[in-house]
């Protein structure tokens, strides 16, 4: 029978098998006494040519006889020998043959030697295969098991015996279920039967398994299997190769978990959502239940300035068991950890804590014994606590529990928890920093913009403010409503070039300046002139000494400033590069008055002009920035037309009108800052105002006192008469003395306070001073300041007006004191 060709993939037959090998018999002296046909095929000698001759003379070259003698000596000593020797072919060439020699005892104690010969290459190939087979069962690190057709174990190798912690003898004849537990048995047997039935091999299929000898630890194995057949095709069984890939599987799982953590944690800068994402990633791949706790200061978005034993806030919880959520502290609860608990130790030491078996560590009971008993009832048996630290800052901790999964946490699990907790902590710290900055921006916004506009006698107001940068919450647009003397009110809207905190800070400076200028009662055009100077100074401040810019230089700003008088119904407006306001009459007619435009603030040296409108009671003024009418990419005319349409419906509240404007003109996220101020005008009734013109005579003060007393009595304000008479008398006296002989005007206004105004044709400003003891005068304005709530001076084209305000409630208390 021919040997298989090298590389054919078939296992070679035993070259020393009787039907395949050559046989030679030697007597005790080394003479050839037997010669087979196979020997003739391998060496070419006919039986008559070798029988009766000495083997050394006919079969071996003289060069090889020493080697042959050594082999013969070993054979005689050990009664046998095997190996490879060079043999001389009949043609004269040397042939390498494999030998097996055994002593045969004849009658009379005579010995003969039975030699079995085969080509050396066949012997070597066969011996290699035998070595491989021996290696698979004795030295291979991969488990090997041979199963009969009924899947009973015929044989296993040493590696599989070590894996199952059973000897080969203990496993032989048993079934897979005798050393594995759970659904793993059914999975493996089903796959092996499929290999037996179909002949299709199973290649590197991973699956979990639990040994009966160690049921609490899950292992992962890679299984390959093939069907065994005899030469006739009969099924002999199935062989499977089993490799313990638990470490490789855990490393791959660790990498996958870290990748998921990187992808799923920190998708937003919301602190609450980030901690929930952390909890969701850890369950169920690493733990059955998870809680995330942050130090209370961190949860507020602040730096951690608390003791580690301070309060923590539960930010997120997640569990595969719904009942566990009722045992754990809920999200949002604030509490302290008992100093003896693993969580407290983790915070204090800033090191992970592993409690593989909770029953052997009673410390965790100290936090809440009742909750601990309920947790044990849910089979909680293992715990890891990991600190959340980022950039050297302790943020909080992560607690991981196992209950459903039987195997306890190990050091590898701690390493994995540390790795993804470290990544999550960076996201949490980013969210905390964003929260901190966002709160700072909101604080800045609250300080820069009016939050709640008070009620005014002159107007009813509503507003809309949307920054282009929602992360900061502020921008360069602003609006304001400023009460002025004489029941008047200033309406302001402006736009600083740029967005974000830089523009907001500049806007805050301009708004402060507007308040100061309004307090001085400047006319609208004068207010804009002073703002223009301020913007120029701010631009210069932003240039460093060597000419390099410290930040984005302010190119300019625009502003619309209007003053409305509810007594005269007149509104005086001036604008600096700003869009004109929309004026809506009570019947819903909308117009854009043609006001002098004026240059934008910051150009410097160009004049501003005011214009005056007379408004019916109930008219609506809409002051806005360009971000409102250009938000959807519309051209200016189309945007203004949409604004007209949104404002043209009478009978709506101001809040409803704001909503209508927003829906008509703004997308969800405007590309530019937007400010809208709506003001519906009111008019003081004639019975609330009394005015007189007094001649510049010495009797003017007495006349003024009489008029004030009579009017206040008619208004039901008699308790204020004495105080008001003193103030009116002082102001009229000063106007008579220093007014240059022009008539003096007296006006009383009953509004939320009592307003007294005295006007004359002089531009000389009255000054409050402290009179000395020896002075006979100089105490008049000091007395006015003490008796009134506020007082001041405003200038007109024809002179000045000195005004005072008295509170209507408790007005006589200051005088009595």
Tell me what the structure shows.
- By secondary structure, this protein is an alpha+beta fold.
- Helices cover 35% and strands 28% of the residues.
- The chain is built from 24 helices and 32 strands.
- The strands form 6 sheets. It has a 6-stranded antiparallel beta sheet with strand order 7-6-11-10-9-8, with helices on both faces. It has a 6-stranded antiparallel beta sheet with strand order 14-13-12-17-16-15, sandwiched between helices.
- Helix 10 runs antiparallel to helix 15 and helix 15 (411-448) runs parallel beside helix 16 (500-519).
- The longest helix is centred in the middle third of the chain and has 38 residues, at 411-448.
- It is rod-shaped and about 175 Å long.
- The termini are far apart.
Task: Summarize, please.
35% of the residues lie in helices and 28% in strands. It is α+β, with helices and mostly antiparallel strands and 817 residues long.
N-to-C CA distance: 136 Å
Q: Tell me the Rg in angstroms.
A: 52 Å
**Large-scale geometry:** rod-shaped
> What integer is the average pLDDT?
83
Structural class call reads: alpha+beta
Helical content (DSSP H or I, runs of 4+): 25-40%
Give me the number of helical elements: 24
- The count of β-strands is 32
List unreliable stretches of 5+ residues. 1-11, 771-777, 810-817
Strand order of the largest sheet: 7-6-11-10-9-8
Strand content: 25-35%
Main β-sheet description? 6 strands, antiparallel
Give the key terms.
817 residues, alpha+beta, six-stranded antiparallel β-sheet, 32 strands, 35% helix
Blueprint of the fold:
Blueprint: E1 22-26, E2 32-35, H1 37-43, H2 47-50, H3 55-58, H4 65-78, E3 80-88, E4 94-105, E5 111-119, H5 120-138, E6 143-147, E7 153-156, H6 158-164, H7 168-171, E8 180-181, H8 183-198, E9 202-211, E10 214-229, E11 235-244, H9 246-264, H10 271-282, E12 289-295, H11 296-299, E13 312-319, H12 322-327, E14 334-335, H13 342-349, E15 353-355, H14 369-377, E16 382-390, E17 393-402, H15 411-448, E18 459-466, E19 475-483, E20 489-499, H16 500-519, H17 524-541, E21 557-565, E22 570-576, E23 582-584, E24 590-591, E25 610-614, E26 620-624, H18 626-629, H19 636-647, H20 654-665, E27 674-681, E28 689-694, H21 700-714, H22 721-738, E29 744-750, E30 753-760, H23 780-787, E31 790-796, E32 799-807, H24 813-816
Antiparallel strand pairs: 1-2, 1-5, 3-4, 4-5, 6-7, 6-11, 8-9, 9-10, 10-11, 12-13, 12-17, 13-14, 15-16, 16-17, 18-27, 19-20, 20-21, 21-22, 22-25, 23-24, 23-26, 26-27, 28-29, 29-30, 30-32, 31-32
């Amino acid at each position: 029978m021919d040997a298989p060709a090298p590389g054919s993939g078939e296992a070679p037959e035993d070259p020393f098998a009787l039907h395949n090998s050559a046989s030679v018999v030697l007597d005790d002296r080394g003479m050839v006494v037997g010669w087979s046909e196979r020997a003739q095929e391998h060496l070419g000698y006919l039986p008559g040519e070798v029988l009766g001759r000495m083997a050394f003379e006919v079969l071996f070259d003289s060069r090889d006889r020493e080697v042959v003698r050594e082999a013969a000596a070993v054979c005689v000593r050990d009664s046998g020998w095997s190996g490879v020797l060079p043999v001389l072919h009949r043609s004269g060439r040397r042939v390498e043959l494999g030998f097996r020699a055994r002593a045969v005892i004849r009658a009379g104690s005579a010995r003969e030697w039975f030699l079995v010969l085969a080509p050396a290459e066949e012997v070597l190939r066969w011996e290699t295969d035998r070595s491989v087979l021996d290696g698979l069962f004795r030295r291979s690190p991969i488990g090997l098991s041979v199963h009969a057709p009924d899947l009973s174990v015929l044989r296993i190798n040493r590696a599989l015996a070590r894996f199952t912690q059973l000897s080969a003898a203990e496993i032989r004849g048993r079934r897979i279920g005798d050393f594995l537990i759970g659904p793993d048995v059914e999975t493996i047997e089903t796959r092996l039967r499929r290999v037996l039935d179909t002949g299709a091999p199973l290649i590197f299929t991973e699956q979990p398994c639990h040994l009966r000898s160690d049921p609490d630890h899950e292992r992962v194995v890679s299984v390959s299997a093939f069907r065994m057949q005899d030469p006739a095709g009969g099924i002999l069984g199935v062989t499977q190769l089993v490799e313990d890939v638990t470490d490789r599987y855990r490393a791959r799982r660790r990498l996958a978990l870290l990748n998921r953590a990187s992808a799923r944690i920190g998708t937003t800068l919301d602190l609450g959502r980030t901690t929930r994402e952390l909890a969701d990633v850890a369950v169920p791949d690493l733990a059955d239940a998870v809680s995330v706790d942050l130090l209370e200061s961190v949860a507020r978005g602040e730096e951690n300035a608390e003791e580690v034993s301070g309060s923590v806030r539960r930010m997120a919880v997640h569990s595969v068991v719904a009942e566990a959520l009722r045992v754990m502290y809920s999200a949002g609860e604030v509490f302290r950890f008992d100093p003896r608990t693993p969580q407290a130790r983790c915070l204090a030491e800033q090191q992970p804590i592993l409690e593989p078996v909770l029953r052997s560590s009673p410390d965790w009971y100290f936090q809440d014994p009742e909750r601990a008993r309920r947790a044990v009832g849910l089979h909680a048996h293992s715990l890891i606590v990991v600190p959340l630290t980022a950039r050297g800052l302790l943020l909080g901790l992560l607690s991981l529990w196992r209950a459903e999964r039987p195997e306890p946490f190990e050091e590898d699990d701690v390493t994995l928890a540390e790795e993804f907790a470290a990544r999550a902590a960076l996201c949490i710290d980013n969210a905390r920093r964003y929260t901190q900055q966002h709160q700072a921006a909101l604080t800045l916004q609250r300080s820069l913009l009016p939050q709640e506009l008070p009620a005014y006698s002159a107007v009813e107001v509503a507003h809309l403010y949307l920054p282009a940068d929602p992360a900061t919450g502020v921008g360069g647009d602003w609006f304001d409503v400023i009460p002025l003397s004489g029941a008047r009110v200033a309406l302001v809207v402006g736009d600083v070039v740029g967005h974000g905190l830089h523009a907001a800070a500049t806007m805050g400076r301009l708004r402060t300046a507007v308040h100061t200028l309004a307090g001085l009662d400047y006319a609208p055009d004068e207010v804009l002139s002073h703002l223009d100077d301020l913007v120029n100074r701010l631009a210069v401040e932003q240039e460093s000494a060597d000419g390099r810019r410290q930040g984005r230089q302010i190119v300019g700003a625009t502003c619309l400033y209007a003053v409305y008088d509810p007594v005269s119904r007149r509104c005086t407006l001036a604008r600096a590069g700003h869009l004109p306001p929309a004026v809506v009459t009570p019947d819903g007619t909308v117009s854009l008055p043609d006001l002098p435009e004026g240059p934008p603030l910051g150009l410097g040296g160009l004049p501003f002009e005011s214009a005056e409108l007379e408004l019916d009671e109930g008219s609506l003024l809409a002051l806005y920035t360009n971000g409102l009418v250009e938000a959807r990419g519309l051209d200016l005319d189309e945007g203004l037309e949409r604004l007209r349409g949104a404002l043209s419906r009478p009978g709506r509240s101001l809040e409803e009108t704001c909503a209508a404007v927003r829906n008509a003109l703004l997308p969800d996220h405007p590309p530019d800052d937007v400010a809208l101020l709506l003001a519906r005008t009111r008019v003081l009734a004639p019975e609330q105002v009394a005015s007189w013109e007094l001649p510049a005579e010495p009797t003017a003060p007495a006349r003024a006192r009489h008029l004030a007393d009579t009017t206040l009595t008619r208004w039901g304000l008699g308790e204020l008469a004495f105080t008001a008479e003193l103030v009116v008398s002082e102001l009229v006296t000063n106007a008579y003395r220093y007014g240059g002989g022009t008539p003096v005007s007296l006006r009383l206004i009953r509004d939320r306070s009592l307003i007294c105004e005295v006007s004359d044709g002089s531009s000389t400003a009255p000054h409050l001073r402290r009179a000395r003891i020896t002075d006979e005068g100089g105490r008049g304005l000091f007395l006015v300041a003490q008796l009134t709530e506020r007082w001041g001076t405003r200038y007109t084209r024809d002179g000045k007006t000195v005004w005072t305000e008295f509170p209507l409630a408790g007005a006589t208390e200051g005088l009595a004191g």
